[in-house]
Amino acid sequence: METNLSNNQEQAILKEMASKKVTQLKSFYNHLFVYVISMIVFLLKEYTDLPLQFFPIKYINWVVMIIWSAVILGSAIDMFASYKIFGRQWEQRKLKSILEKKYKKQKWE
């Protein structure tokens, strides 16, 4: 019985972790899409004679784009490189460790 409960809890935790990862990935891709569109518009503004002087585009300059590029790069490293370092095996070990600590604290009567 205890192993079934453990497996069910482990499955629920893994499902929650996967759901959180998918949400983070979706957020990253949305941010990346907006960044790419903005970069295209910025480059068109800088290197062509198109009259792109309306509100948000007017205030985008090189500093803003460099900072935004650094943020995107940091997000990408966090999203993908940390997965390589802290991959599936690390998650499994950490999950077992957390569950074992939780079971040791739980008292059965």
TrEMBL record:
The chain crosses the membrane at residues 28-47, 59-86. InterPro entries: 2TM_dom. Keywords: Membrane, Transmembrane, Transmembrane helix. The keyword Transmembrane helix applies. Residues 17-99 form the 2TM domain. This is Putative integral membrane protein. It comes from Flavobacterium nitrogenifigens.
